[in-house]
Amino acid sequence: MTKSEKPTRKSSKQQGTAKSGTDSKSTKTPRSSKQSVRTRKPSVAKQTSAPRDSFSPVPGEVDLYLFGEGRHELIYEKLGAHVLNHEGVKGVSFAVWAPNAERVSVVGNFNEWDGTRHPLHHLGDSGVWETFIPKLKSGELYKYEIKSAGLPTFLKADPYASYAETPPATSSIVYESKYRFRDSKWMKKRAGREHFRQPLSIYEVHFGSWRRHVEENNRSFSYREMAEALAEYVLRTGFTHVEFLPLKEHPYGPSWGYQVSNYYAPSARYGTPDDLRYLIDYLHQRGIGVIMDWVPAHFPKDAFALARFDGSALYEHLDPRRGEHPDWGTYIFNYGRNEVRNFLLANALYWFREFHFDGLRVDAVASMLYLDYSRKDGEWLPNKFGERENLEAISLLKELNEVVHRDCPGVMMIAEESTAWPQVSHPVYAGGLGFDFKWNMGWMHDTL
């Protein structure tokens, strides 16, 4: 099949709206990834598959336009897998950005991992592929089967998946949150908080090693098990906030979470997404703020994830002088591509809105600011002015901080920045990058 033969479907004029959070008791969480392997018989999905054009696309024309402009702040509600009632039928919508693919299908236990059963439909020139599968439910394992010109068919995890299998397994999992937060008092108070005018003492935690069950094969605590133990320790020692090293899914445990494969999925090592929501909710009810390390500077080369996603350098630069990090052996995001910027901007908002985090500590900002970061002469490309500043990354950071502070008042954006770059924590309107704080790298290394 050539690109001109891609199955297309005219998109409907639908636009997503933001979810409104309400306070009530949490309900039973969806089954875990371990349980999700025991899916329904594969024939069920085949029997309930609808003709290709029976349903209009879930991403509408406005969604696709905003995504192409890099300004769809709720794009995670349209791309990925979502359990919903669509045109009167309960099922799961799937949507993925893969503009260079010739064919995309969704595969899983529900269709015996057969790429001919549920092909996705190409929505014009947006690069987005989508489908809706009736009667499919939360808990199903899935991946995207992609065929690109000149390459054999390959499988990819969903970049917008909200849940994934516990590593080393790599499938995405359809997930429907049932959690309702009970931290409205904290959230209301946070909205008017000026952190630089109040005491701030942060306790940094690597979740997997902070406390373990020695008698149970030395396993880590789960999100729910951690809640009371961590709250008691933090209150006893006088900290105001905890800061978790990255809790997004990552394939390599010893990376401490800094090589992220699933930007929208909390690590399944410690429980479900709703279990993480419970942990944050509990800490808030005990008067403790919660920060997480966030990694927009680079991502790993694992074949199942973002790297060469549709057979091309999609999320990263093709030229290694811009697209590869020499120290960490990872890819660098293409900050000049609208859809990639949207992926990152919406991701930051996702953790604030969907999980109620109170701050993001942005990792490796220095590596984003300079094109020659950790590179020798001849190993980097200058910007259009012949200088070493990464103009696209600088623009992204400024936009990120403005959008976050506009939409999520009272949260903190913290830069791990180790150079003499001026005005890191000054407002964007005053010529700064817009962060609230700059991490004191010298004190951390020299004192701690």
Number of domains: 2
| Helix coverage percent | 10-25%
Global morphology: globular
| Category by helix and strand content | alpha/beta
**In CATH's first tier, which class of the largest domain applies?**
Alpha Beta
Instruction: Identify low-pLDDT runs.
Output: 1-52
Folded structure, characterized:
It is a single chain. By secondary structure, the protein is of the alpha/beta class. It has 2 domains: 3-173, Immunoglobulins (Immunoglobulin-like), CATH 2.60.40; 184-447, TIM Barrel (Alpha-Beta Barrel). 25% of the residues lie in helices and 19% in strands. It has helices at 33-36, 42-48, 61-69, 184-191, 207-210, 223-237, 273-285, 320-323, 338-355, 365-369, 391-407, 441-447, and strands at residues 80-86, 89-97, 101-107, 121-122, 128-134, 141-148, 154-156, 172-173, 202-205, 212-213, 219-220, 241-244, 248-249, 262-266, 289-294, 324-325, 330-331, 359-362, 412-415, 437-438. A 6-stranded parallel β-sheet has the order 9-12-15-18-19-20. The protein has a 4-stranded antiparallel β-sheet with strand order 1-2-5-4, with no helix packed on it. Strands 3, 6, 7 and 8 form a 4-stranded antiparallel β-sheet that branches. The radius of gyration is 22 Å and the shape is globular. Residues 1-52 have low confidence and may be disordered.
What attributes characterize this protein structure?
448 residues, alpha/beta, TIM Barrel, 2 domains, 4-stranded antiparallel sheet, 12 helices, 20 strands, globular, disordered N terminus
